[in-house]
Amino acid sequence: MRFDYQKWQGPRPEDIEFIKQLMGIYRNLLLQTGGDVDEALRWMAHFGEQYGFFNEKFGIEDFKKLLEESGEAARTPQGFQVTPKGEKRIRQDSLNEIFSTLQAGGAGEHRTPVAGTGGERLSETRPYRFGDSLSDLDALGSVSNAVMNHGIEDLTITEDDLEVFESEHLSACATVLLVDVSHSMILYGEDRITPAKKIALALAQLIQTRYPKDSLDVVLFGDDAAQVPLKELMKIQAGPFHTNTRAGLQLARRILESRKGVNRQIFMITDGKPSAIREQGKLYRNPFGLDPRIVNRTLEEAVTCRRKRITITTFMLATDLPLLEFVRKLTALNHGRIYETDPANVGAYVFRDFVRNRRKRVH
To answer: In which band, very low, low, confident or very high, does the pLDDT at 192 lie, cut at 50, 70 and 90?
Structure first.
């Protein structure tokens, strides 16, 4: 992800909008520094001096106090540290940025064509049944039934008069976030790891807030694959690794096979090019082009996931045609979904839905 900086033309310190924009810059820098608050603040001081958004009225020390007062960062003997509140705010900002344009029915949709208990309230109603929650009671409809059944002069509401709103059944779901941390995610000066983290953080916030009973696991893949705690998402960085997509899918599948849930899904965030596989304990790698040996083993794993009823949704962060074609083939074999996007504009996607066999652009 690339940022262009110029002379500050925004609001001044006394304007609340000024503070909001400064916080936005800080949170972006925090993502780029892997959660290192002190490093992010050093960059803030540098840009503030160079582009004029700090002055004698509001300087970097004032901004540090603001971070402490807001609860997004805490001062410790080792320096500033991001707080759980700060992590949550970055996840929410990522969710707002990434998914503000997405429509219902996209990635991670839990709806099934069955009305049942729990889930989101529908406009339709039905007669009350013993055990229904009174919080779903349609008060107006129930009173109307009582008037029609008993008359307005001697208004009495019985159990037979009660109406409750239908609710849309939401199925349980187990999800693995699969994030590419190979060297290609920062190759040729193009930052793909920061938008990858934004997408991962947004997905995590979406699942935690909207579907808190779902299971959520995080797997990183480079030369090999490793499971990491959810709290490590903001800190991840690309390393000197090849791209062992097969290993990532295998580990994600094994995790999901151990999880209980009606639906099981993998969200894979990558630039698309598999360049390594591990065979008989040895790493076979080929960073040049798309090696058929590596590609075929990776595609076989996508098919295995399909047989296990595990859907793969891929967020593609590269636009190279050969890489796109590989990911499209993987998606087709898995009967999954793919979002194709430019890393500099993660809010605009081309959604290729191989399940419903349709294509749409989301703006």
So the answer is: confident
> 361 by DSSP, 3-state: which?
strand
Q: Which two tokens stand for residue 180?
A: 């590419």
Token pair listed for 333: 């074999």
Q: Are 24 and 15 in contact (CB under 8 A)?
A: no
Alpha carbon distance, N-terminus to C-terminus of the chain: 19
Cβ pair 98, 199 in contact under 8 A: yes
Angle at 311 between CA 309 and CA 315, to 5 degrees: 170
Summarize pLDDT for 232-287 with one digit per residue, the tens: 888 888 888 999 999 999 999 999 999 876 688 999 999 888 999 999 889 999 98
Q: What is the pTM of this model?
A: 0.69
Give the closest residue to 249 by CA, choosing from 279, 225, 274.
225
User: Do residues 171 and 72 lie in contact, with contact meaning Cβ atoms separated by under 8 Å?
Assistant: no
Largest CA distance in the chain: 85
Q: Which of 228, 222, 265 is nearest to 245 (CA)?
A: 222
Whole-angstrom distance, CA of residue 266 vs CA of residue 305: 9
Summary mean pLDDT of the chain: 80
In the Cβ-directed half-sphere of 338, how many Cα atoms lie within 13 Å? 26
CB of 236 closer than 8 Å to CB of 228: yes
Q: What CA–CA distance (Å, rounded) separates 66 from 303?
A: 51
| Distances in whole angstroms, Cα of residue 201 to Cα of each of 99, 289, 342 | 11, 31, 18
Q: Name which residue leads in pLDDT, 338 or 353.
A: 338
- For residues 46-62, average pLDDT: 81
